[in-house]
Amino acid sequence: MARAALRQLVRLRSAASTSRSSLGFFSSHSCQSSSVEDRDNSLFDSSLKLLETCRSARELLQIHARLITSGLIRKAALSSRVLRLHLELGHVQYAILTFGYVHSPSTFCVNTAVEAYSVSSVPSDGVRLYFKMLRRGDFIPNSYTYVPLLGCCAKIGCAGTARKCHGQAVKNGVDGVLPVQNSLIHMYGSCGVIEIARMLFDGMQQRDSVSWNTTLYVYVRIGDLVSARNIFVKMPEKNVAAYNILIVGYVKGGNPGAGLKLFRNMMSKGVTASSRTMVGAVMACGRSARLKDGKSVHGFLIKNFLESNILIDTALIDMYSRCERVDVACKLFDEIEVKNPVCWNAMILGHCIHGNPTDGIKLFEETLGRLRSGNSIKKKRKKQKRKWLVLAERREVFPDEVTFVGILCACARAGLLEEGRNYFSKMTSSFGIKPNFSHYWCMANLLSGAGLVQEAEEILRCMPQDDNDMSSQSSLWATLLSSCRFKGAAAVGERIAQSLIEKDPQNFSYYQLLLNVYAVAGQWEDVVRLKDVMKKKNIGRIPQCGLVDLNDIVHRLRVSDIWQEEMQIAQGSN
């Protein structure tokens, strides 16, 4: 990506030289100034003014290209401003690339580069950059350095790296600065070191709303809703961000009724709801299958929100699908002008799980057809090495692993054995998606539904277990899949779950899978018995009797979205 950015930057150099925009001052000044020094000073002042008023990505690239050709990019004041503007406009890769060409970068430049890495896909490079600059000897970090640096550590999730960077903050005497303290709490919470996060919070002499919200989020993140509620009650001032965190926490923690009650409490206190609030309220109605309350919240949205957005629309599609009103979900889906992969997945899963599974497959094929026709011109110009379809504007991929869970589930529900085998094969061969536990589980139920019980058991027993697939990602999927309500799968499900428990006796997700298998079959005595076994073995938290819904995948496996949410909370965003 960096090479592509450099190529585009080089192309824009020539474009800038022929531009008839306000950048024409570059050529006029060179003729009017009799002195090279006067010309450079004049160009410097004009460039700085342009950068201060620049709000357009295209204009910034033109200014940047011309600064490079004129040699003014070597000026620290200009290069640091260009670097910062690239980051503010969302050009993370450009910001990182630009930093590499800054001569003797200032602390401001280093801070900006570390911040760029903190919101990139390679946060570890931000930590490496920090220590590299320290070794040079001319870099003096300040409190503004550590907020993005600790953000990198939070995104990495490594407790060892977190402690090392914490030590750096202490060494430089900034660990008592409020934004740094808030970032430390967020970092340790993201790394799972809750005790240190709480110790830091309790030891703060001064707290702001970010301190409270971050600590609240730390407890919500690990599912400790009791501690989260205690923090919420003690908050001196409850803003909309605090309500949002706890509402979503209740929904994802299996208590959507409490989330809906908190939403009503928030409305009664006159707190203005945000889009995130409404998404949480709609999710609560969907997870508890409360159609009447869902319609009420939808009516509130229509009355009070002049403009909808893709997040709210997707949540409404999910809610109506869960409440078995897939027809209403379809109408909402059709009204969305610009759809993204999460929106498509929500509608496909709505059909596949709660509606007519063949409609879900049909929508999947229609979506692929439209995307193929939309990308046909690009395919003629350049042969694509990857076979999946990339949405160029948003840089998102469809179909993804979530899509194929819905499709395989639909095949299992409809008894489409050959179609299911075909989609499972194409997932890897045509779209480059590596199957995980969820896909094997759907295939096992498809096979068992067709009477191929031994083959069903074999496909899971021989499932690849390289990397950390079984220990992390697949265990997450394992908690979500029994809501497909596959027919006749109780016996094979029990055998498969028992086999997984034998392989990893301390894995909570496999016990939860077996609990859900029993619940689907109505074997409530076995549910009680297994819960007692789990209590005696002290294995995880004991879930409620309600089944975990497969649609949780749409929300719980979006790592980039989760990280953006964490960063916004750490910065005090509402």
The helix/strand class is: mainly alpha
Proportion of residues in helical segments: over 70%
Secondary structure tally: strands: 2
The largest sheet is: 2 strands, antiparallel
Instruction: List segments where confidence is low: pLDDT < 50 over at least 5 consecutive residues.
Output: 12-34, 377-395, 466-485, 541-567, 569-574
Distance linking N and C termini? 32 Å
Tell me the β content.
Answer: under 5%
Query: What would you report as the Rg, rounded to the nearest angstrom?
Result: 27 Å
- Count of runs of 4 or more consecutive helical residues: 33
Mean pLDDT: 78
Rough outline:
globular
The spatial strand order of the largest sheet comes to 1-2
Characterization of the model:
The protein is an all-alpha fold and 574 residues long. The chain is 71% helix and 1% strand. It is built from 33 helices and two strands. The chain has a two-stranded antiparallel ribbon with strand order 1-2. Strand 1 (389-391) and strand 2 form a beta hairpin. Helix 7 packs antiparallel against helix 8 and helix 24 runs antiparallel to helix 25. The two termini are 32 Å apart. Mean pLDDT is 78; it is low at 12-34, 377-395, 466-485, 541-567 and 569-574.
